[in-house]
Amino acid sequence: MKMWSWKTWLVIWCALLILSGWLSVPLPADTRSPSKGQLVYVPVYSHIYYGDKMHSFNLGITLSLRNTETTRPIEVVSVKYYDENGKLVRDYVPPAVTLEPLAAVRFHVRESDVSAGSEACFLVRWRAPQKVSPPVIEGLMIGTLLNQGISFTATGRVLEEY
Known about the structure:
The chain has 1 helix and 12 strands. It is mainly β and 162 residues long. The strands form 3 sheets. Strands 1, 5, 6, 7, 9 and 12 form a 6-stranded antiparallel β-sheet that branches. A 4-stranded antiparallel β-sheet has the order 8-4-10-11. Strands 2-3 form a two-stranded antiparallel sheet. It is elongated.
């Protein structure tokens, strides 16, 4: 089995540092206005490319939804996973899921599942009967290969407000 050179690992590391800097900048807590619901877009990556020959490095994806409310539940109405061409791959939440105060739920795409292509995304719709603090919605990508591991996050972006 051919081992990667230190230069290859350096390129992977630098690419991930750049990606994590662009994608993991959360909003400060005081700029998150209360809401009765949102449609949130979360960019995720089932694999990334590196090197001149565009080798791919597979990544497992975890979509994390965290209710930041301390006293009120929220309802997760839908979680849909789309491929890089905008086609629906999987619908994770046919019936709505209630998240109690400070509770969390996760949805996972296996590292071996690259069917959505590299540039996939989730659309998450949530609602509440009254205005609440919006949940934290993030994608966590992680991959391991030959004693090496990489990980980074992507923060959801609000597309619609209700």
